[in-house]
Amino acid sequence: MKAAALNHHDVWTLRGVGISADRLPMILGCDAAGVDADGNEVVVHAVISDHAAEFADETLDPVRSLLSERYDGTFAERVAVPRRNLVPKPAALSFADAACLPTAYLTAYRMLFDKSGLEPGSTILVQGAGGGVATALIRLGSAAGHRIWATSRSEEKRQRAMELGADQVFPPDARLPERVDAVMETVGEATWSHSLKALKPGGRMVIVGATSGTMPPADLARIFFLQLSVVGSTMGSRDQLARLVTLCEQTGIRPLIDRVLPMKQAREGIAAMVNGDVFGKVVFTL
Ligand SMILES: NC(=O)c1ccc[n+]([C@@H]2O[C@H](COP(=O)([O-])OP(=O)(O)OC[C@H]3O[C@@H](n4cnc5c(N)ncnc54)[C@H](OP(=O)(O)O)[C@@H]3O)[C@@H](O)[C@H]2O)c1
Q1: Residue 188, ligand 1, Cβ within 6 A
Q2: 25 C-alpha to center of ligand 1: Å?
Q3: 163 near 139, Cβ under 8 Å?
């Protein structure tokens, strides 16, 4: 291991969400970049499937897990994964950059380029601009030629979202200049109703997370009357991670890193995420 990135998944695990007592103790961490046993620089794909050969997309394996759910995670000096979970790391990408890709950036990649069904030049609303997935959506989406609108609770984060590539930024619940083709949701309950109202007839919401809660009022009438689609998405495949790595290498796009800390100061990074005091990714180095 050379670098590991922090995700909200690690905060959920610390809170006991998605893990049961019989699996403890468990090493946290989904994301990693490092060197394999043969000395090759690699990025670690976090989705572990014992039946990968049976699924074209291993995230559809009903018993797949993410590192740190069933098998020990990446906040460690070494991590053991199936060989197919290693993706070559190009020299042009630093270990810190590469460590940000397997969860937040892969998730954003699938949301934008697979699940949204949108062609470049579309208008996309990203809720909760400061998060790891949200900053990845802004960076990848704007680079792909989409018009990205973003919301954040913080004026400072709204300004930083503009610097990152957003076209316009808004406080939560703001009235938008027009309705959008798609909304990228990671926040959940706090932004759900705004997200539904923001969509054009026939528009699509792609949802991967619900940091603020999972049970908003569904507003079913709006969904069927305006023929909206609500599409769930989770992580991405090993092949999509390989294409994301190539995309970064070819275009020069790099993940937005909020801070890099030695692994021994992981507590500081986790506290910043819990307090919402991050804009981009937190990376731990060894
Ligand atoms: N399904 C998957 O494969 C997958 C993959 C990655 C992540 N996720 C999930 O997606 C979510 C985001 O993950 P992340 O790693 O990007 O987390 P993160 O870096 O902690 O980002 C959270 C962002 O959400 C916004 N937010 C949080 N609470 C809010 C509230 N009450 N009201 C409005 N906005 C709020 C904040 O935006 P502002 O401060 O800018 O308002 C914050 O920056 C998590 O729930 C995570 O579990 C799912």
Answers
A1: no
A2: 25
A3: no
Give the helix/strand (H/E) hosting 152. none
Please check the confidence at residue 52 and state whether its pLDDT lies above 90.
no
Q: Supply the DSSP string of 201-242, one letter for each residue.
A: EEEEEEE---TT-S-----HHHHHHTT-EEEE--S--HHHHH
With a 6 A CB cut-off, is 193 part of the ligand 1 pocket?
A: no
**Tokens 């020990």 — which residue?**
72
CA dihedral (169, 105, 179, 278) positive or negative: negative
Predicted local confidence at residue 108, as pLDDT: 98
Tell me the two tokens of residue 83.
């060989």
Average per-residue pLDDT for the chain: 97
272 SS3 class: helix
Share of the chain above pLDDT 90, in %: 98
Tokens describing residue 145 = 């030629």
Entry field: residues in the chain: 286
Residue type, 187: V
pLDDT tens profile 79-121 = 999 999 999 999 999 999 999 999 999 999 999 999 999 999 9
Cis geometry, peptide bond prior to residue 25 (ω within 30 degrees of 0): yes
* Residues 187, 212 contacting (CB under 8 angstroms): yes
Give nearest CA residue, ligand 1 atom 19. Answer: 131
**pLDDT tens digits along 150-195:** 999 999 999 999 999 999 999 999 999 999 999 999 999 999 999 9
Alpha-carbon span 209 to 88, nearest angstrom: 28
Interatomic CA distance for residues 246 and 197, integer angstroms = 36
Looking at the DSSP bridge assignments, the partners of residue 276 are none
Distance from the CA of 104 to the center of ligand 1, in angstroms? 10
Using most ligand atoms within 8 A of CB, pick from 19, 138, 186, 205 the residue to mutate for ligand 1: 186
- Cβ contact 4:29 at 8 Å: yes
